[in-house]
Amino acid sequence: MGCCRGIVLFNRERHFLVVWNPLTGSSKRISHSRIESRSNVHRFSDAILYGFGYDDSQDDYIVVLIWQDRYPQSNKKHLDCFSLRTNSWINLDPALPKPLVWRDWKHCGMFLNGAIHWLSPDLHSYIDPILVFDVKERSFSKISIPNQPVRSSAKLIVLGECLAMYFHDNHKTYVWVMKEYKVQSSWTLMYEIPHGDCDPICLSNGCGSDIILLEYSERYTKIRFAKYNSSGELLQHFNHPSPHNYFKCRHLKHFCVYTESLLPFPSDLKDKDKKKKTGHRVRGECFEQLEHEEA
After folding, report:
1. pTM of the predicted protein model
2. Chain-centre distance of CA 222, in angstroms?
3. What are the extents of the domains in the chain?
4. For residue 227, what are the β-bridge partners?
5. Distance CA 290, CA 160 (A)
6. What was the pLDDT predicted at 117?
7. Per the CB 3.0–4.6 Å rule, which of 27, 99, 186, 204 could disulfide with 20?
8. For the sheet containing 172-178, what is the strand order?
9. Residue 132 — left, alpha, or beta (φ > 0 → left; ψ -120 to 50 → alpha)?
10. Which 8-state DSSP code applies to residue 265?
11. Which among 199, 202, 102 is positioned nearest to 155, based on CA atoms?
């Protein structure tokens, strides 16, 4: 469901989420059953929008969920944020932007520059169709897309340190990159890939101009990747060692780029500090008791 600073967010079963650091093996389960009962939803997949980000002002990881009541007569929206540091949910319903039609929004948000970004499925109904949630300020804003025609099937992605969007048209994949954050004039058509059935993943080695894409084709028996340069020239093909074949790969709900990190969860640091304080207190009591016995 997303990745931030080396920590991955998963949806696990019905009533909880999991945050996991694959490198250290640390994990934490987050229950959202309270939200489900309050919002009259039956499962996490009923969330309209969700995202995972980091608040550097608090050294805290934030899970953001936007829900809508299942009862048609209600149609009420809810905004809830989970703080990994405080291990608690916060309701922020008043912060939701209004009016805003939520139908068929792209569910998973992209985290960049301290904010989570979602793209509206109806790019022509909004002047600024990219919705932005600042995890520090807990507030919303919007960003414009390129002036040139963009297909409604477009998707958001983060390439390097830039917000980007891509779509397929005429058996090609077009990738637009916003070189300067929140500046509409900086949108640039960076890649025109001669393959209409692929998803951009990341830039080669995390920087530079070469791009890595996940390709789909019934001819391939394995998950296959491709590297292209900014001129749209194919540089390399390579298969992933995963045993999954094309058919399973084609139905992936979501994928994200993971960068290894040794960073602990904020709650782990908090627990560690508590243990240290408790340890000092116990040693002090033992020392005082020993002095009393010797006297």
Report:
1. 0.84
2. 26
3. 1-143, 149-264, 270-295
4. 212, 236
5. 60
6. 95
7. 27
8. 155-159, 162-169, 172-178, 187-193
9. beta
10. P
11. 199
